[in-house]
Design goal:
This protein is α/β, with parallel strands linked by helices. It folds into two domains: 123 residues, Winged helix-like DNA-binding domain superfamily/Winged helix DNA-binding domain (Arc Repressor Mutant, subunit A); 192 residues, Rossmann fold. 45% of the residues lie in helices and 13% in strands. A seven-stranded mixed beta sheet has the order 5-4-3-6-7-9-8, sandwiched between helices. Strands 1-2 form a two-stranded antiparallel sheet. Helix 4 crosses helix 5 and helix 13 packs across helix 15. The longest helix is centred in the middle third of the chain and has 23 residues. It is elongated. The chain starts with 16 loop residues before the first helix and ends with a strand. The model has no long low-confidence stretch (mean pLDDT 93).
Length: 348
């Protein structure tokens, strides 16, 4: 017998923000330790302010992880970018993170140099390639591990539990009036699609996922009691054309897993498949346009940079990517737990 639908319209009575932030910001200290102990980054920057491109050239770093590192340091007040994009060490960095200062804290971080995640960050910064999930020596990279039943089940369950809160908060903010059908692209367990239809009963939804997650999604949707309101279509978003006949598309916690070139491909695929006049929603943790905060999002970006091919994108970066894909009417609105929605429309 199918269970009664889970109430995905309700928000918790208490605020779990700090619980989310502990987990999301877990890797930030390791990225700082890698910069101090392996690259003596702040001593170099204080001696010679530089652009991202020059920093990558001089230190032998890949652009994506170096960008995430600089964003984290800007959000912490260790780095300042001028109008020309040149990065400078701030007063606090010069006093506490530069080796010639009497208040240099480098030795305080030296004991962290051999931590597994610090070592991973050194490799990721140099190569641009993500580390294994959670630094597990025998685990495949995240995108490959998701093709196995065991890892996909564990990972999907982890994302599903956070979605019970984040999904309801997101659903209350989306522009769903006048829309009919939602396509939740790479929708994982289906928790976000279920939250949307729970809060907007006039909508039907389809979760688009590759195997074996599509099977996991069907099971979890049924357990939540949403069979008949949310269905699942199998396919790989990078190789399978997106299903047509939808006037609302959702990428929830998806784009942050991929570098800019793949994000551009996904947005182009959405634009091609979305009904004319349709709405796109990107639910994620977004940096501000200046990429100097919010600090919790910059910390989360460090985690993403380490274990996926992506990072957290700024609102300015998202506006540019959406515009290049053909979308118009860009807007941004916070939801919950340092997340927000970015919306844009396909012209009619």
């Amino acid at each position: 017998m199918e269970k009664s639908p889970m109430d995905l319209t309700a928000l918790p009575h208490t605020d779990p923000l700090e619980i989310y932030r502990y987990r999301d910001g877990l890797y930030a200290v390791d990225l700082l330790a890698a910069a101090i102990t392996e690259f003596d980054f702040f001593t170099r920057l204080a001696a010679q302010p530089a652009t991202l491109e020059n920093i990558c050239r001089d230190l032998g770093l890949a652009a994506r992880p170096a960008d995430v590192m600089l964003t984290l340091f800007a959000a912490n007040g260790f780095v300042r970018r001028d109008a020309a994009g040149v990065c400078h060490a701030t007063s606090v960095a010069r006093e506490h993170l530069v080796s010639s200062s009497p208040f240099f804290l480098g030795p305080y971080y030296a004991s962290l140099k051999e931590r597994p995640v610090v070592c991973d960050f050194v490799k990721v910064l140099r190569t641009g390639r993500p580390a294994n999930w959670g630094s597990y020596a025998h685990e495949k990279p995240w995108s490959e591990a998701m093709l196995t039943d065991e890892f996909a089940t564990t990972f999907t369950a982890a994302m599903d539990c956070r979605g019970a809160y984040l999904g309801a908060a997101m659903a209350k903010k989306i522009p769903a009036k006048g829309r009919r059908r939602l396509l939740d692209i790479a929708g994982g367990s289906g928790i976000y699609a279920c939250a949307v239809v729970a809060n907007h009963p006039h909508l039907a939804a389809t979760v688009f996922e590759r195997p074996p997650v599509d099977r996991i999604a069907r099971t979890l949707i049924a357990k939540r009691g949403f069979t008949g309101r949310v269905d699942v279509a199998a396919g790989d978003m990078f190789t399978t054309p997106l299903p047509r006949g939808f006037d609302l598309h959702l990428f929830s916690n998806v784009l942050h897993d991929w570098d800019t070139d793949k994000v551009a491909l996904l947005l182009a695929a959405s634009f091609a498949a979305l009904d004319p006049g349709g709405q796109l929603i990107v639910h994620d943790a977004h940096l501000n346009a200046e990429k100097d905060g919010p600090l919790p999002v910059a910390k989360y970006s460090a985690l993403l940079m380490s274990v996926t091919e992506g990072k957290c994108y700024s609102t300015a970066e998202m506006a540019a990517l959406l515009g290049a894909a053909g979308f118009v009417e860009f807007a941004h609105e916070p939801t919950a737990a340092d997340r927000s929605i970015v919306t844009a429309r396909k012209p009619a």
